[in-house]
């Protein structure tokens, strides 16, 4: 568990607010001192999920007794702001968790992000997901599923790349089952066994193959921070992948500004941001 000053400040601010604070629980390491701490969901951020503390993690269908008006009002804005929300209890619960914090966009995992295989989506979950999307007014354009951390489409080992591809394809098929149109993933790594150029070719090859086996999902490639043999810390890597994708209408880029800055793209000033933006356009 990672405790942060930001989380501590958040807890303090909630306590000072006139509205009821989220449910408190005692963590094991707090019992000895008798001090009460906030729900773990406020104090840990791997794997970057926000989980609503006041709602049950069990799957809930939209029922007439659920007051939609009790959820926070979402602001109408061209800026889509949200969080990576929990799917505990069923993928359909991501929508409740997003609505609970007033998000007008959200990200989610479609299955365990640290397992190669997961049980298929049930018809009940699929139907509930679609119903809640409509009920809460979310369109597929503001929902960005995130792929498994295990996927490495640039791995030069055929057997390992095949395993990654199957996991990747399964994610895209889950998107289509749920009516989602975007899918974000990390491009992969050379694992120190081949060149960047060859890994880029392999990633594009896998994307093309996945596109041929699906119909509509846009594969969104995320830029990376550049540790080790990872592909994607240089925007030229992303451009290299995209240039080899046959259906350009089904490929996009997700800009992670933290990764971007860590990779050496200084965007702290307006003129620096504009320079990086122009540079990126030139790569296309």
Could you explain the architecture of this structure?
This protein is mainly α and 284 residues long. 37% of the residues lie in helices and 9% in strands. It contains 9 helices and 6 strands. It has helices at residues 5-16, 28-31, 93-100, 123-135, 158-178, 196-212, 235-243, 257-262, 270-283; strands at residues 82-84, 105-109, 143-146, 182-185, 218-222, 251-254. A 3-stranded parallel sheet has the order 1-2-3, with helices on one face. Strands 4-5-6 form a 3-stranded parallel sheet, covered by helices on one side. Helix 4 (123-135) links the parallel strand 2 (105-109) and strand 3. The protein is globular and about 55 Å long. The two termini are 41 Å apart. Residues 1-64 have low confidence and may be disordered.
Could you give a quick summary of the protein structure above?
With 284 residues, the protein is mostly helical.
Give short descriptive properties of this protein.
about 280 residues, mainly alpha, 3-stranded parallel β-sheet, 6 strands, disordered N terminus
User: CA-to-CA gap between the ends?
Assistant: 41 Å
The helix fraction, in percent, is: 25-40%
- 3D shape: globular
- In the predicted model, the low-confidence regions spanning at least 5 consecutive residues are 1-64
Q: What structural category characterises the helix and strand content? A: mainly alpha
